[in-house]
Amino acid sequence: MSEALTHEQVLEQAQLWRTEGHGVALATVIETWGSAPRPVGSQLAIRDDAAFIGSVSGGCIEGDVVTRALDTLSSGKPEVLEYGVSDAKAWEVGLACGGRIRVYVEPVTA
Questions:
Q1: Which terminus of the chain is more solvent-facing, meaning fewer CB atoms within 10 Å of its CB: N or C?
Q2: Which pLDDT tens digit goes with each residue over 11-45?
Q3: 87-101: b (≥16 Cβ within 10 Å) or e
Q4: Where is pLDDT greater, at 52 or 94?
Q5: Which residues are 105's β-sheet partners?
Q6: Measured between alpha carbons, how far is residue 45 from residues 30, 65, 96 in Å?
Q7: C-alpha distances in angstroms, 92 versus 10, 86, 107?
């Protein structure tokens, strides 16, 4: 949707989706190093049908984070994702900014 949203807006939308009966995962930037696209604390809420709101990378890894968040919703287990310039996956998904980013993905529960 948009990366210019506040944390409160992302969390409010996640809560709304939950009250509507959707499964929701939350991805949060927990660590950055070097030239990272978004600061620590940036969040992305992902609905069980792959709709999302917020941003953890300005767009370069969102697709992969959404896919992994859907896996997290299926398993019910949180996961830490890491993308960096030395990681081949980072280049595949577009994180070529020269930095590193760690993202914590967790299912939102009541």
A1: C
A2: 999 999 999 999 999 999 999 987 777 889 999 99
A3: eeebeebbbebebbb
A4: 52
A5: 27, 79
A6: 15, 10, 23
A7: 27, 11, 25
Query: Helices (H) and strands (E) in the chain — how many of each?
Result: 3, 5
The residue type at 84: G
What the block records as the tokens of 106 is 């967790």
Residue 30 — φ and ψ, nearest 5°?
Answer: -110, -15
Strand partners for 26? 45, 106
Q: What is the pTM of this model?
A: 0.85
Do 22 and 49 meet the contact criterion of CB atoms below 8 Å apart? yes
Which amino acid makes up residue 75?
S
Beta strands at 24-33 and 43-47: parallel, antiparallel or unpaired: antiparallel
Tokens of 46: 């992902």
Q: Which CA distances in Å does 89 have to 4, 61, 82, 95? A: 26, 10, 9, 9
List, in sequence order, every residue forming a beta bridge with 81; answer none if it has no partner. Answer: 103
